Amino acid sequence: MPRRRMIAVASRSAALLAVMMLSSRATPARAADAKDETSQSQLAEVQGRWEREEPQGSDASYKRATKEIDGTRETVTYFDADGKVVRQHKVDFKLSKAGDVNIFTYVNWEATEGPQKGTKLPGPVSYIYRVSEKQYREAWGFLPGQENRRSVLLIWKKAEGERTGAALAAGTEQAAAAVTAAALEGTWKPTSSERGGEPQNAEEMNRHALKFDGDKFAILRDGESFISGTYKVDAAKQPAEIDMTIDQAENAEDNGKVVRGILELSGDDLKWCTGGPRTEQRPTEFKTAEGSRLMLVTFKREKKEQKDAK
């Protein structure tokens, strides 16, 4: 057998063995059948900065790569021998399971550095993964539809100084625990607002406020409620999710509708992103894009003395 063929067969065998090791009891995995079971702990495990080196003799255009995961956003950067960035891409992702197999699925692939800069691919694309305290393994070529893809096992190591998954999980739980009705209690004044990638008129923004009282909310204009209802928060999600059910609105067509959004709370600072009452889509990150219905607002909680003075 030619040497190149022997190497290819050996590489595939090694990769196959590695995948079997990723989940020794796994049933056959299909990305299409994967259940969206992303949990707070699963997401926490993959957070942080991961690194890997290309093996000696590799003909790849890069020598080192880093994977930085923040929330449900991943940035992968490739460097040459001199530390210069060769290329970089970013994706949005979700984690799921098919049987005992962990599946990483990404969408919105975008090249942000290198020859392909500006190229965008919608996806979705999936691979099998397994993560431990200090190691992240991703296996390509073993899901249906990837039969013609070269089988590859990439092993990433947690970067020096990065917190372990357990520490990240503890931090995530602490942050999630902070998003409660008691923590949201009060009146919040907007400090910035944008919709569809465009900043909103500051004068109009300053007329509004958001008030939480127990399990009730109200959106105020010039101090008077014009949208009100009840809300619930799922602090176990990352970022925390909020569903606001409208009981009374100026536009009667919105009564009974649910405003789905995400929240980030830090003391007296609040960040809220939503698509409003006329879409069932929930944003996954705190940003808006040109042409979208998404709105992103940051707030500062009113101090008690400020309210008393009015």
Describe the structure concisely for a colleague:
This protein is an alpha+beta fold and 310 residues long. 17% of the residues lie in helices and 44% in strands. It has 2 domains: 3-174, no CATH class; 181-308, Lipocalin, CATH 2.40.128.280.
Can you give a write-up of this model?
By secondary structure, the protein is α+β, with helices and mostly antiparallel strands. It has two domains: 3-174, no CATH class; 181-308, Lipocalin, CATH 2.40.128.280. It has helices at 3-22, 40-46, 165-178, 181-184, 202-205, 304-308; strands spanning 48-53, 64-70, 73-79, 85-98, 101-113, 120-121, 125-131, 135-140, 152-158, 186-195, 198-199, 208-213, 216-221, 224-234, 240-249, 258-266, 269-274, 295-301. Strand 12 and strand 13 form a beta hairpin. The radius of gyration is 23 Å and the shape is elongated.
Topology:
Blueprint: H1 3-22, H2 40-46, E1 48-53, E2 64-70, E3 73-79, E4 85-98, E5 101-113, E6 120-121, E7 125-131, E8 135-140, E9 152-158, H3 165-178, H4 181-184, E10 186-195, E11 198-199, H5 202-205, E12 208-213, E13 216-221, E14 224-234, E15 240-249, E16 258-266, E17 269-274, E18 295-301, H6 304-308
Helix pairs in contact: 2-3
Q: Can you tag this structure with a few keywords?
A:
about 300 residues, alpha+beta, Lipocalin, 2 domains, eight-stranded antiparallel barrel, eight-stranded antiparallel beta barrel, 6 helices, elongated, disordered N terminus
Distance between the termini: 86 Å
Q: Please work out how many helical segments DSSP would assign.
A: 6
Count of structural domains: 2
Low-confidence stretches: 1-29, 168-177
Largest sheet: 8 strands, antiparallel, barrel
Strand content: 35-45%
**What is the residue-mean pLDDT, rounded to a whole number?**
82
Helix content: 10-25%
Structural class estimated from helices and strands? alpha+beta
The radius of gyration over CA amounts to 23 Å
Strand order in the largest sheet: 1-2-3-4-5-7-8-9
Secondary-structure element string: HHEEEEEEEEEHHEEHEEEEEEEH
The strand count comes to: 18
From the spread of the alpha carbons, the general shape counts as elongated
